[in-house]
Amino acid sequence: MSQSDLCPSDLAPIALSCGEPAGVGPELAVKAAKLLAGAVPFFWIGDPRHLPSDALFEEIASPADALRIAPGALPVLRHDFAAEVRPGTPDLDNAQGVIDVIRRATALVQTGEASALCTAPIHKKVLKDGAGYAFPGHTEFLAHLGGVERVVMMLACTELRVVPVTIHIALKDVPEAFTPELLEDTIRITAADMERYWGYAHPRIAIAGLNPHAGEGGAMGTEEIDWMIPLIDRLKTQGFDLKGPMPPDTMFHGRARAGYDVALCAYHDQALIPIKTIDFSGGVNVTLGLPFIRTSPDHGTAFDIAGKGVADPSSLIAALKMAQDMAITARKAL
């Protein structure tokens, strides 16, 4: 079966974990189901009490039942929580339920009952205070559940894919954390999943320099000369299609983006500023290196607007669509 022969109904539906129930996740799930109208089959795992009072939903007994729900209604795989919810005000009693839903959703993907996992935002402090959550973030918990030590964060939209090699650390700590070993590992994980989930046999990977003007021959920093260029040259001999180190300030305009499939950046803002400028509402967070597909909307719980009906579902819809496209590509390769 070719990719063009596949359609959404050929795949298991996508599992959407509820995330923090006092945030915008529940209302966004309802909006996404209505707007997608069955074009991307998915089901929501959570407590129906946490959905908006006017939500159109239908409880299902198994993930497969999501394919039989009327278009526009949200299929709900019920998962009871300890407490009801007040939008914008998290309840620590619900923290364990959030963790359990992530675990349950991951298990459904691992068994093949779901084709991919899409995660609504969580609030890490609530989970830590309410349930002793031991992981620094969502992604680390998923890596633990997937049995892998190292994963990579990608932010993606239609026009750009970026990978920050170092992520949530202070800028002053980047030069020490940005090592040859970390960059090489990130290149290898990125290349493997670009082939597996996007179909690029030899993805063109652009690598941003750490320093302004990629060091300008050592005048503005020597990391590029000392180890980045030798590392890139060595990996090229192994078949990787690499460009760089590239000056970070000139690699994100339209003509430059046409020359690569994904850009690796040294630190958080170097990667996220361009993609959020290009597509602030439609960016998707993708975790590479897991043994299953995971996407997430690129925003937080937004407690300040939760329950007001104004939350924008664009990023969640983009995340569900990207998860479906990735699942189709992976299925094609089987």
Could you name the key traits of this structure?
zinc; alpha/beta; Isopropylmalate Dehydrogenase; 334 residues; twelve-stranded mixed sheet; cobalt ion binding; NAD; cytoplasm; 2 domains; 10 helices; magnesium ion binding; 35% helix
The first-level CATH class name of the largest domain: Alpha Beta
Number of helices: 10
Sheet/helix structural class: alpha/beta
Total domain modules:
2
* Cα shape: globular
Report the end-to-end length measured between terminal Cα atoms.
10 Å
Helix-strand string: EHEEEHEHHEEHHEHEHEHEEH
For the record, the CATH architecture of the largest domain stands as 3-Layer(aba) Sandwich
Strand arrangement across the biggest beta sheet:
3-4-2-1-5-12-11-6-7-10-8-9
Binding site for a divalent metal cation: 168, 213, 268
Keywords: Cobalt, Cytoplasm, Magnesium, Metal-binding, NAD, NADP, Oxidoreductase, Pyridoxine biosynthesis, Zinc
Function: Catalyzes the NAD(P)-dependent oxidation of 4-(phosphooxy)-L-threonine (HTP) into 2-amino-3-oxo-4-(phosphooxy)butyric acid which spontaneously decarboxylates to form 3-amino-2-oxopropyl phosphate (AHAP).
GO cellular component, one term: cytoplasm
Task: Explain how this protein is built.
The protein is an alpha/beta fold and 334 residues long. It folds into 2 domains: 1-151 and 284-334, Isopropylmalate Dehydrogenase, CATH 3.40.718.10; 159-278, Isopropylmalate Dehydrogenase, CATH 3.40.718. Helices cover 35% and strands 16% of the residues. It has helices spanning 25-36, 95-110, 124-131, 138-146, 174-177, 180-198, 223-236, 254-257, 268-278, 314-332, and strands spanning 14-17, 42-46, 57-60, 74-78, 117-119, 152-156, 161-164, 204-208, 241-246, 262-265, 284-288, 294-297. It has a 12-stranded mixed beta sheet with strand order 3-4-2-1-5-12-11-6-7-10-8-9, with helices on both faces. A hairpin with a 5-residue loop joins strand 11 (284-288) and strand 12. The termini are close together.
